[in-house]
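Researcher: Please generate the 3D structure of the following complex. Treat every line as part of one assembly.
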Amino acid sequence: MDLLKLGLYEQAILMFAAVVLFTSFAMLAQARIVPLIHIFAWQGALLAITAALVAYVTNHPHLYFSAALTLVLKALLIPWLLHRLTVRLNIHRDIEVLRFPSLIMLGGAVLVVFSYSVALPIAHLASGTTRNTIAISQAVVLLGMLLMITRKKAIAQVIGFMSIENGLFFAAVSATYGMPMVVELGIAFDVLVAAVLFGVFFFQMRDSIDSFDVDRLNRLREVDEPPLPDVTEKET
Amino acid sequence: MIESLPLPIDAAWLLAVVQTLLFVFVAPLLSGWIKRIKCHMQNRAAPSVFQPYRDLAKLLRKHTVLAENASWLFRFTPYLVFAATILAAAVVPLIALQLPTAQIADVIVLVGFLALARFFLALAGLDIGTAFGGMGASREMMIGALAEPVLMMTAFTVSMSAATTNLSEAMGYTLSSGLVLRPSFLFAALGLMLVAVAETGRVPVDNPATHLELTMVHEAMILEYTGRHLALIEWASKIKLMVYLVLIANLFLPWGIATELTLAELGKGTVAIAGKLILLGMALVVWETVMAKMRIFRVPPYLGFAFLLSLLGMLTHVVLETGG
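Model: Done. Output below.
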């Protein structure tokens, strides 16, 4: 669908979709925890704006509700919960060492191309102005996965997970103008509960292995056994 | 009415020459303006906006001092850099589209002229054989090697929409299609801004106002230059800054530029570009004030991010704007 044939609001949908994709890349590049949470909040806010615009353009009023839900949960509540957690765990000034940052970025670009080629047949079947954003929403899902794969700290992985959920919501909005309200509410509260549970899990993790590096969870040891010498040495 | 008639072809050439001269003689004013508001922003006493003219005049009057082992290359480079930068400025439409100089060359030629100037500047830095010259040249080439792909990708992103690499025609296309929100243009503009900061040696990458040994890039290369040679190189770097700012202003927001060669249109174009440059200069000052100078090894990730932006511009053009 040629951009020049679309109206201004439809162009704005595509513009916001592109910015949502950009926030995914910005999250990949961001090594600090608190800015990462802020970018995640911005992604939620942009997603809410996109959903509201889709609701306005395609005249689906129930999408306004989804947009409001996204704004409250993804842009305000969950980032606030995560931010409070980082402050309470005293990791809000941590900087994670990113290995091969440029390579990760290029990998992300490859994922965008891949999701475009996957979404192309779907986009041909679909009609309406938002069909071009299906590829973008898939790319957001895949970039969230890439964020989870490339990070070692548990909190960054949680943000990657939430970002995947953002991508799924975006896919639902752009492909079928939103899911049924029951499903949407269910997912929203699942995510909220997940955020709370992850918080509990973080405290458990800190108490038992004294680190947020999830690679350390691979190592098995007996409860009454003294900690391995290399473990205590490697921990900074 | 003579004013409403399109001017004959010779007048178009004349206008192209006038526009290039405008580039050459307004560039110091632009850098004076940037320096002045930067001083205001940082609570310092600001020099007059005409100070760069005085500096250049002073340098042009002074004798040149050459090192004993300086070859012809060292003496030849300032003139070549100045000439190549002026030719690059001639390619960029400033106040009017469809001028003959803009039509015979496209954006690849523009990048080529700037690369030629950079190449000879780096050679001159090496020629004199001092440690600083070599260090500056090596840093400059590293930045250049990373920045030029971004510049090309940005140009290609725009040319994919406009179906031409000619700057004048691309601006004309953007003008004629009216207000269209293009995600690709947004990313390309951001990428071009980041790379313009790197290419013109502004704050996060290089500091034009410092002679602190360890951090300088551009200044290290030209450390041995004096007198009129230094004046020409400084002037060329001011013109280069203006070329980049005009490129950003006119490629992505071409509104106001003269499409016909009438006096009224030309006046409107002059006012429009003056306004755009004033605003862009202020944006640059805010950016330079909030950013801290980066370590040299932070520059590759920075330019990698700029490359990613321009790549995203191209991808979003394919994914969102053509729709397969």
